């Protein structure tokens, strides 16, 4: 019998007939050359069937660890199975850092890059923007290197696993730095009306959390490289104790607060690497909209709060800078991210997802590739001006459909 594999949230049971672990790159090439279908399982932190397959499911966790810092100390070469938490600790020990981190340090680098998973900050691109080079096994089993500036590179980085198995990545790095995290309670709705751009740009990154039980923002999380003066912040009160992003959840697995300085990798994520992230029993959705229409987007969510709030754990509002990666949700536009952590009930959540997509449609909202969305594929494709170029790139790297699955067939359309 095939190994039963579920995603991190437990809402997806993969249909693979075979699961392969402890693989080498040559063995991966053999599996790919056999013709598939084949998909790669990262850390399992996706909430839809993008990684599913009826054929071979491969894990890169067993690849030999590679953390090779370039001689000029401006980049690091890593294997396709490494996770951000492990990489961050090893980089910090060398006095280096990544420019950004996602909320969770538990996710795999290759999986985060392939889906344009992001982190936060008005001046910071998503995690995929740090990729300077990658190496992948294309559909015929050949190992292909790509570097920034090569033809097709900007289409291959956020690749949805459609072009091949990413075995190595080279990431830009910067000197290590310290971050202080401050949390504020009850940011008034009136402050959003008057000061939203200043609020979102007030730190290295800023996240606003609300459960939509009322008009105000429950918590504002400010991550800053310098000390912040004591006292109110845009009308919000400094938190009188540690907070978890989800209301009512103990704060023990959240990263340290109260402005205590600490390493970049121990403050930029919301959750500590040594603990289970977030709440576990959840689904997630997220949409990116143009940042200049941020208040309009927040109003759109508020207009369906009666549908959203009963199935919501928390809504995080954050920002990501524009980039040039064809299938990035932030392609050519500075973005506001509307991230929703739902209860673990797909049937109950889907009506809220549909309601949000309807209200956000005038903003050309782009859903996060690895999360729950219901947008029809034709509309989704229309929101990416390089989508046809991406399909052509996929056809060149995988003409036989080795990496195809039902989810990709729907997203990409007919071959």
UniProtKB/TrEMBL annotation:
Keywords: Oxidoreductase. PANTHER family: D-ARABINONO-1,4-LACTONE OXIDASE, L-GULONOLACTONE OXIDASE. The keyword Oxidoreductase applies. This is Xylitol oxidase. It comes from the Bacteria. One of its GO terms (cellular component) is membrane. It is an enzyme of class 1 (oxidoreductase). Gene3D superfamilies: 3.30.465.10, 3.30.70.2520, 3.30.70.2530, Uridine Diphospho-n-acetylenolpyruvylglucosamine Reductase, domain 2, Vanillyl-alcohol Oxidase, Chain A, domain 4. Residues 12-176 form the FAD-binding PCMH-type domain. One of its GO terms (molecular function) is L-gulono-1,4-lactone dehydrogenase activity. Its EC number is 1.1.3.41. It comes from Actinoplanes digitatis. InterPro entries: ALO_C, FAD-bd_PCMH, FAD-bd_PCMH-like_sf, FAD-bd_PCMH_sub1, FAD-bd_PCMH_sub2, FAD_lactone_oxidase-like, Oxid_FAD_bind_N, Vanillyl_alc_oxidase_C-sub2.
């Amino acid at each position: 019998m095939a190994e039963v594999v579920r995603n991190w949230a437990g809402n997806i049971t993969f249909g693979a007939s075979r699961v392969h672990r402890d693989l080498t790159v040559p063995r991966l090439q053999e599996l790919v050359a056999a013709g598939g279908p084949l998909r790669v399982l990262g850390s399992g932190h996706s909430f839809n069937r993008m990684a599913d397959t009826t054929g071979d499911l491969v894990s890169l966790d067993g690849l030999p660890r590679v953390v090779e810092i370039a001689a000029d100390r401006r980049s690091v070469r890593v294997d396709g199975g490494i996770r951000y938490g492990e990489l961050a600790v090893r980089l910090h020990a060398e006095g280096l850092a990544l420019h950004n981190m996602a909320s969770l340090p538990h996710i795999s680098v290759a999986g985060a890059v392939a889906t344009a998973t992001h982190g936060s900050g008005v001046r910071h691109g998503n995690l995929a923007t740090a990729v300077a080079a990658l190496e992948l096994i294309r559909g015929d089993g050949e190992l292909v290197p790509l570097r920034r500036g090569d033809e097709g590179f900007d289409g291959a980085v956020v690749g949805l696993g459609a072009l091949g198995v990413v075995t190595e990545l080279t990431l830009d790095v910067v000197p290590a730095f310290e971050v202080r995290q401050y949390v504020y309670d009850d940011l008034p709705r009136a402050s959003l009306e008057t000061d939203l751009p200043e609020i979102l740009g007030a730190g290295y990154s800023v996240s606003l959390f609300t459960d939509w039980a009322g008009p105000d923002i429950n918590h504002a999380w400010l991550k800053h490289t310098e000390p912040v003066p004591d006292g109110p912040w845009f009308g919000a009160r400094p938190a009188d104790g540690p907070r978890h992003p989800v209301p009512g959840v103990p704060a023990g697995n959240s990263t340290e607060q109260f402005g205590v300085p600490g390493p970049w990798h121990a403050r930029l994520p919301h959750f500590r690497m040594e603990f289970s992230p977030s709440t576990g029993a959840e689904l997630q959705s997220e949409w990116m909209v143009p940042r200049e229409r941020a208040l309009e987007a927040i109003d759109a969510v508020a207009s369906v709060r009666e549908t959203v709030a009963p199935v919501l754990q928390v809504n995080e509002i954050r920002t990501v800078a524009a980039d040039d990666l064809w299938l990035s949700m932030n392609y050519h536009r500075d973005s506001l991210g509307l991230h929703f952590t739902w209860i673990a009930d797909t049937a109950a959540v889907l009506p809220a997802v549909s309601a949000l997509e309807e209200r956000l449609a005038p903003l050309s909202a782009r859903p996060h590739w690895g999360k729950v969305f219901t947008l029809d594929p034709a509309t989704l494709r229309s929101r990416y001006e390089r989508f046809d170029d991406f399909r052509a790139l996929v056809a060149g790297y995988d003409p036989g459909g080795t990496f195809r699955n039902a989810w990709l067939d729907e997203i990409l359309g007919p071959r």
